[in-house]
């Protein structure tokens, strides 16, 4: 009595097939690898044959693979990266970051302010300080305006020294003096050649040769040389001007003063006129009126004495930060470690909860409304069910905005539904129901929009459930309800699963509809993400929120797999 | 087994049952059928003949448009299927894919609120009955078609119904397996003494398994009889044609005398036949002769046998038998089956032979 | 190490460089992408500027984009991607300041880029202090103010005439609509909390002041619908969904005058604001040349006055004001509907662009958090 189709060996007993296999195995053990007809090992021949197939398969999927990589994987990777990326602080304020290395709190000392002065001058010239201000403002409110204000003042930093140098000798006003001091002789020659050519030929359109420092000048002027080099670069690239024409920034004079004070014998490195100029200056600086950079900053804005500002700069100086993720969890990174956000700023926990909760409600509403429809559709003759299916799909063919707006018209207080309720007398004119600009509105509109995503997988699964199962159940003695609940329903679960996954994942990321009908209580986390992408421009936080949302979805997917089993999902 | 048709002892009864789906045409025209307890009855017929509809009406999944269906004397027209207590085996097995074998079997017991220990005993017994005792924990998808059908059978029997309906249960299985299961089902049915209504379109299945066979065509029972009667004494040309292989010669009745009649075939030849379905001279008739009742060897022809000239068109060697196609009375599809005996001649195509048969094997039926 | 150089050599070289930045003629691009706010406003720009310009320059084709709302974000994204696809962007003054600060908008010289007034006044003087940023090319003066329905039964005939009526739920019950951003709302809240007009921004700078503003807004928070598109309030007013709402005066003008709805304007503490063009940084020479040519045309005295035929916003040039005439279709005098009209401007509020440019990020974050709670 054998059913020799799929039963395991011990039931079916030996079959010719099994016997052959056993024989092959025995032979393989006895005489080494099996050889193909041409004497090569069979495995290798097989692999070669398969390789061609694999390559062909790869070639077939390559366009899609590349498309997915470019349009899907790469943006997600970029998003994940943005959520931790934080190079802007170290890039914009390199000296300050180094000066703050040992900062532990309180108001920092003069060197930190000096470093900041230098960094901020360059940043302001490059117009990068506002971006940094905005970036740090995400962490501590007020820094944006602080950077903007001081950014406007900072070009005066060092003016005291500029004036004194210029009073000392008019040569210090001349850009050429600085070129002579710092530029490499070769560059000066190149520049002269370039200038001559530009004069001769009006159509000559090449940019000025890029400025570079003379060899060794950085050892002589450890502060001034790098600052002047930066100045020259900025002048050339940003202003498309020449260092030979522009008087250096005030901060260059400040560094010059510092270098001369540190090394009065600087002039020894030069000869000729500049040497004299330098040695005179070196003598004079001893008597210069000094300025305090810290005071300069405090005068510009007293917030520079606020340890919170410095703590924020310090906390966000590394190139990678957990700050965005912490912010997403209503936490903040402070120099003293991780702290909870102020009570009135804690919104993300609330929004995540609300998003998950409302998506669940929407999902269940879709099941409740969609299941009977799908059941009906799958049990009707094909012609009728096709017509009804078109009705189900009809909303897909209308623009999302139109549909959402029509919900507005229906649900608002002076809207159709309220009008009807008042007309029937169920609701008095003064107590019209508030059905929009709250959670109710969002749930209604989104259930409507997402319903087809529930019905379609349900329908496609239900269509494949043969009516004989329910008949069998009934013939076995099950009542209509038992037959449905114990036999039909479990088999429609894959459809519910697929519908739920679709609806839930779509719902969790929706933002247009909640924005339009959700008011302030019916908005989702995705509305915040959209806000940070397009309005506040806090892309890092948007990326972190997006990553968390992605993680939540993956976790739910994993849970679903654990509980229901992902094989039990049928997308039709 | 008994083939009583007496209404008093009938267990299942169809009384002038009609069924229409669209209100225009009748799928079941006028069904009258009664079967005693313990009978194995097969409904046989081509697709669309109404046999499955009858079964579904009996099971309760379709309602009769007219007439009464009675089970054990009680009218069941308005009893919902789950209260009829009829076991059913489906063509595609209809095992619940999300339940294990044991759960499938437990299902009818659970809905009948049978206690756990009782349940387990019954399940074990039912599984042993179909020799599937080791498979209780498997899912249907892990079983072969034959195994699934055994489980389906066990499930239909586990709650001990007195009537079991089977809707082409072996249709999807290969030949060998089908034969094994045919034997098993028959044996089980007889051992348990249950009444079975079995639907199939496979005549061999019908003949080998049943106590009685109801041949369906065009919404009516064409003949209801034991298998041997059905084969040997078909009452009309549909049954003759449908059951087994059959040669048909058309002609006109010339003369009827008792259990003999003369039929003039369309090519002018006159043959003797047994009048079954003809009543008057001049009537058109189809004469039916089974291929194995035709003799090609003159020497073996029995006394009184009628002979005809024939030309061999094709000779097929089939091992145990030879199958020869001949041209007889102007028809090209006359088949003769002869046993592969040492003295049996192997005919050559083109050969002229004389064939013959006994008049009582030659039945004159309706045209 | 010795570095030897004479001062003479470098001085000579300085002179040479001065002659280098010579002017050169550049071909103009034929395509232009102009970004604006959509709706009636964009239509007025198309009719008053673009169509006459294209009549003179038939080879030019203009693509309109309605992204001004998120211009800052998009320009930043384009800048990061290194591909600027916009040629001219219409933004409000505070956005222009932000864009300028971030180096995303091009600085320009008014007297070089813009046409002088017909009487020869230089552009810089004609626009006056409306040029609030080095990148901002002023176009119109508009105001954000309130419109209210005139048929609210619960008001028993009272009509709001004071900005603080917005916060008065007792005398003026019903839903209000306010813009979903801190700008203007914070100022009105403080004004109605008793802060003198001239101290509003000083108070708002402090944390206590911000708390005060939020506390005041809290009193009407659950009676407020928050809008983000300029068309929202007119629609809500027309539907009767709100009884009182803030929006741009031009939108109210079309609601009241063109659509004849039972709505009136509340001309109190209306906030003047400016709207104008910026040219994105980083355009190619050809495209820049075209944009400059267009801007010279589109901001001249007549063109700015023409725009007022289609929408009730005041032209930014002093010299355009006397040229403002009739509404193109309705044939009514436009001057009395301008926010700048003396009858409407009895109690205006001076909006501080600089302040908002500095504090916008701070307050936006707080405001959004406040909204979400």
From TrEMBL, chain A:
GO cellular component, one term: plasma membrane
ABC transmembrane type-1 domain boundaries: 352-560
Family: Belongs to the binding-protein-dependent transport system permease family. CysTW subfamily.
Membrane topology field: Multi-pass membrane protein
Single biological process term from Gene Ontology: transmembrane transport
Residue ranges of the TM segments: 57-77, 356-378, 384-402, 440-461, 493-512, 539-560
UniProt-listed Pfam families: BPD_transp_1
Protein name: Putative spermidine/putrescine transport system permease protein
The UniProt record lists the keyword ATP-binding: no
Cytoplasm among keywords: no
Domain of life: Bacteria
Keywords: Cell membrane, Membrane, Transmembrane, Transmembrane helix, Transport
Source organism of this protein record: Tranquillimonas alkanivorans
InterPro entries: MetI-like (IPR000515), MetI-like_sf (IPR035906)
Subcellular location: Cell membrane
Region Disordered, annotated ranges: 1-34
Automatic annotation (TrEMBL), chain B:
E.C. designation(s): 7.6.2.11
Pfam families: ABC_tran (PF00005), TOBE_2 (PF08402)
InterPro entries: AAA+_ATPase, ABC_SmlMolc_Importer, ABC_transporter-like_ATP-bd, ABC_transporter-like_CS, Mo/tungstate-bd_C_term_dom, P-loop_NTPase, PotA-like, Transp-assoc_OB_typ2
GO cellular component: ATP-binding cassette (ABC) transporter complex
GO molecular function list: ABC-type polyamine transporter activity; ATP binding; ATP hydrolysis activity
Keywords for this protein: ATP-binding, Cell membrane, Membrane, Nucleotide-binding, Translocase, Transport
Swiss-Prot/TrEMBL catalytic activity: ATP + H2O + polyamine-[polyamine-binding protein]Side 1 = ADP + phosphate + polyamineSide 2 + [polyamine-binding protein]Side 1
EC class of the enzyme, as a word: translocase
Every ABC transporter domain range: 12-243
SUPFAM superfamilies in the cross-refs: MOP-like, P-loop containing nucleoside triphosphate hydrolases
Gene3D superfamilies: 2.40.50.100, P-loop containing nucleotide triphosphate hydrolases
Subunit structure: The complex is composed of two ATP-binding proteins (PotA), two transmembrane proteins (PotB and PotC) and a solute-binding protein (PotD).
Functional summary from the UniProt entry: Part of the ABC transporter complex PotABCD involved in spermidine/putrescine import. Responsible for energy coupling to the transport system.
Record-stated family: Belongs to the ABC transporter superfamily. Spermidine/putrescine importer (TC 3.A.1.11.1) family.
Protein name: Spermidine/putrescine import ATP-binding protein PotA
UniProtKB/TrEMBL annotation, chain C:
Lineage top rank: taxon: Bacteria
Keyword Signal: yes
Keywords: Signal
Signal peptide positions (record): 1-22
Record PANTHER family: ABC TRANSPORTER SUBSTRATE-BINDING PROTEIN, SPERMIDINE/PUTRESCINE-BINDING PERIPLASMIC PROTEIN
The name this protein goes by in its record: Putative spermidine/putrescine transport system substrate-binding protein
Source organism (scientific name): Tranquillimonas alkanivorans
């Amino acid at each position: 009595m054998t059913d020799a189709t799929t039963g395991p060996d011990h039931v079916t007993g030996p079959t010719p097939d099994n016997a052959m296999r056993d024989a092959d195995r025995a032979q393989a053990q006895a005489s080494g690898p099996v050889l193909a007809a041409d004497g090569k090992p069979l495995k290798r021949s097989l692999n070669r044959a398969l390789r061609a197939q694999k390559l062909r398969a790869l070639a077939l999927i390559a366009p899609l693979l590349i498309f997915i990589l470019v349009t899907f994987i790469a943006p997600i990777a970029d998003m994940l990266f943005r959520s931790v990326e934080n190079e802007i602080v170290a890039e914009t304020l390199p000296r300050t970051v180094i000066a703050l290395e040992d900062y532990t709190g309180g108001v920092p000392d003069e060197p930190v302010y000096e470093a900041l002065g230098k960094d901020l001058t360059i940043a302001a010239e490059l117009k990068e300080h506002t971006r940094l201000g905005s970036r740090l403002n995400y962490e501590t409110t007020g820094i944006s305006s602080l950077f903007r204000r001081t950014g406007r003042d900072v070009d005066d930093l060092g003016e005291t020294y500029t004036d004194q140098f210029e009073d000392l000798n008019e040569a210090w006003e001349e850009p050429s003096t600085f070129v002579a001091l710092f530029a490499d002789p070769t560059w000066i020659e190149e520049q002269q050649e370039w200038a001559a050519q530009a004069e001769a030929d009006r159509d000559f359109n090449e940019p000025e040769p890029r400025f570079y420092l003379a060899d060794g000048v950085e050892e002589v002027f450890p502060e001034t040389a790098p600052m002047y080099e930066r100045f020259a670069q900025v002048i050339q690239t940003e202003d498309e001007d020449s260092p030979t024409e522009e008087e250096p920034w005030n901060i260059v004079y400040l560094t010059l003063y510092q270098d001369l004070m540190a090394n009065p014998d600087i002039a020894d490195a030069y000869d000729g006129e500049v040497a004299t100029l330098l040695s005179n200056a070196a003598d004079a600086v001893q008597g210069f009126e000094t300025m305090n950079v810290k005071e300069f900053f405090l005068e510009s804005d007293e917030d520079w004495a606020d340890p919170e500002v410095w703590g924020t700069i310090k906390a966000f100086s590394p190139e990678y930060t957990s700050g965005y993720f912490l912010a997403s969890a209503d936490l903040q990174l402070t120099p003293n470690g991780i702290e909870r956000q102020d009570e009135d700023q804690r919104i993300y926990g609330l929004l995540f909860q609300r998003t998950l909760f409302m998506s669940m409600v929407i999902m269940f509403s879709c099941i409740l409304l969609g299941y009977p429809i799908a059941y009906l559709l799958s049990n009707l003759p094909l012609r009728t069910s096709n017509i009804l299916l078109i009705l189900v799909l009809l909303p897909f063919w209308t623009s999302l905005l139109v549909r959402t707006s029509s919900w507005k018209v229906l649900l608002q207080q002076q809207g159709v539904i309220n009008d009807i309720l008042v007309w029937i007398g169920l609701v008095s004119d003064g107590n019209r129901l508030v059905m929009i600009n709250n959670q109710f509105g969002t749930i209604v509109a989104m259930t409507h929009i997402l319903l087809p995503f529930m019905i379609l997988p349900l329908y496609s699964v239900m269509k494949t459930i043969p009516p004989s199962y329910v008949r069998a159940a009934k013939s076995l003695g099950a009542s209509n309800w038992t037959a449905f609940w114990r036999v039909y329903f479990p088999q429609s679960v894959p459809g519910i699963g697929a519908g739920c996954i679709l609806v839930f994942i779509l719902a969790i990321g929706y933002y247009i509809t909640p924005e339009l009908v959700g008011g302030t209580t019916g908005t989702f986390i995705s509305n915040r993400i959209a806000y940070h992408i397009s309005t506040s421009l806090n892309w890092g936080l948007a990326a972190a929120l997006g990553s968390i949302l992605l993680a939540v979805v993956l976790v739910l997917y994993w849970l679903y797999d654990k509980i229901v089993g992902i094989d039990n999902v049928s997308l039709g | 087994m008994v083939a009583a048709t007496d209404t008093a002892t009938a267990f299942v009864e169809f009384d002038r049952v009609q069924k229409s789906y669209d209100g225009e045409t009748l799928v079941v025209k006028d069904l009258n059928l009664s079967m005693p307890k313990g009978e194995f009855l097969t409904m046989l017929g081509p697709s669309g003949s109404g046999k499955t509809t009858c079964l579904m009406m009996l099971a309760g999944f379709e309602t009769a448009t007219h007439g009464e269906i009675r089970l054990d004397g009680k009218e069941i027209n308005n009893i919902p299927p789950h209260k009829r207590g009829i076991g059913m085996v489906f063509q595609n097995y209809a095992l619940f894919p999300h339940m294990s074998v044991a759960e499938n079997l437990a299902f009818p017991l659970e809905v009948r609120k049978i206690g756990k220990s009782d349940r387990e005993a019954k399940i074990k017994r039912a599984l042993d009955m179909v020799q599937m005792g080791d498979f209780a924990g498997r899912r249907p998808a892990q079983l072969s078609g034959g195994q699934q059908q055994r489980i389906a059978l066990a499930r239909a029997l586990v709650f001990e119904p007195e009537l079991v309906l089977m809707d082409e249960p072996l249709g999807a299985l290969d030949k060998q397996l089908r034969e094994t299961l045919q034997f098993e089902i028959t044996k089980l049915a007889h051992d348990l003494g249950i009444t079975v209504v079995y639907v199939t379109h496979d005549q061999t299945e019908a003949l080998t398994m049943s106590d009685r066979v109801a041949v369906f065509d065009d919404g009516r029972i064409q003949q209801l009889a034991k298998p041997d009667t059905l084969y040997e004494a078909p009452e009309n040309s549909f049954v003759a044609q449908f059951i087994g292989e059959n040669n048909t010669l058309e002609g006109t009745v010339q003369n009827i005398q008792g259990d003999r009649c003369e039929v003039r075939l369309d090519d002018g030849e006159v043959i003797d036949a047994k009048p079954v379905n003809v009543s008057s001279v001049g009537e058109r008739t189809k004469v039916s002769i089974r291929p194995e009742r035709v003799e090609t060897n003159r020497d073996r022809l029995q006394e009184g046998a009628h002979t005809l000239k024939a030309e061999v068109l094709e000779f097929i060697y089939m091992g145990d038998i030879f199958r020869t196609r001949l041209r007889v009375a102007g028809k090209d599809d006359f088949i003769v089956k002869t046993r592969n005996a040492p003295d049996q001649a192997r005919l050559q195509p083109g050969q002229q032979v004389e064939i013959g048969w006994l008049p009582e094997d030659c039945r004159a039926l309706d045209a | 190490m010795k570095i030897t150089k004479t001062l003479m050599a470098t001085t000579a070289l300085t002179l040479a460089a001065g002659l280098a930045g010579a002017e050169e003629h550049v071909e103009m691009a034929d395509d232009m992408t102009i970004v604006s706010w959509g709706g009636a406003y964009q239509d007025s720009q198309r009719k008053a500027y673009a169509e006459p310009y294209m009549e003179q320059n038939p080879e030019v084709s203009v693509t309109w984009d309605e992204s001004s709302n998120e211009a800052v974000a998009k320009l930043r994204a384009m800048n990061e991607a290194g591909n600027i696809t916009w040629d001219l962007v219409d933004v409000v003054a505070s956005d222009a300041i932000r864009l300028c600060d971030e180096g995303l908008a091009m600085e320009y010289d008014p007297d070089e880029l813009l046409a002088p007034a017909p009487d020869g006044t230089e552009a810089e003087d004609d626009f006056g202090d409306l040029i609030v940023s080095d990148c901002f090319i002023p176009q119109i003066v508009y105001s954000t103010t309130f419109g209210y329905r005139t048929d609210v039964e619960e008001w028993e005939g009272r009509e709001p005439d004071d900005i603080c009526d917005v916060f008065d739920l007792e005398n003026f019950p019903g839903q209000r609509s306010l813009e979903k951003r801190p700008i203007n709302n914070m100022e009105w809240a403080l004004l109605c909390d008793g802060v003198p007009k001239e101290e509003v921004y000083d108070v708002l700078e402090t944390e206590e002041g911000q708390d005060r503003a939020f506390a005041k807004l809290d009193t009407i928070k659950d009676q407020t619908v928050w809008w983000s598109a300029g068309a929202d309030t007119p629609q809500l007013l027309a539907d009767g969904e709100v009884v009182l709402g803030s929006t741009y005066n031009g939108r109210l003008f079309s609601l009241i005058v063109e659509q004849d709805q039972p709505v009136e304007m509340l001309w109190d503490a209306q906030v003047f604001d400016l709207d104008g063009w910026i040219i994105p940084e980083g355009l190619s020479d050809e495209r820049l040349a075209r944009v400059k040519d267009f801007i010279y045309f589109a901001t001249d005295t007549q063109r700015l006055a023409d725009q007022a035929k289609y929408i009730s916003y005041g032209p930014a040039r002093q010299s355009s004001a006397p040229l403002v005439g009739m509404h193109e279709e309705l044939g009514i005098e436009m001057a009395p509907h301008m926010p700048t009209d003396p009858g409407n401007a009895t109690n205006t509020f001076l909006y501080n662009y600089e302040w908002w440019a500095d504090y916008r990020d701070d307050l936006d974050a707080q405001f959004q958090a406040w909204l979400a709670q």
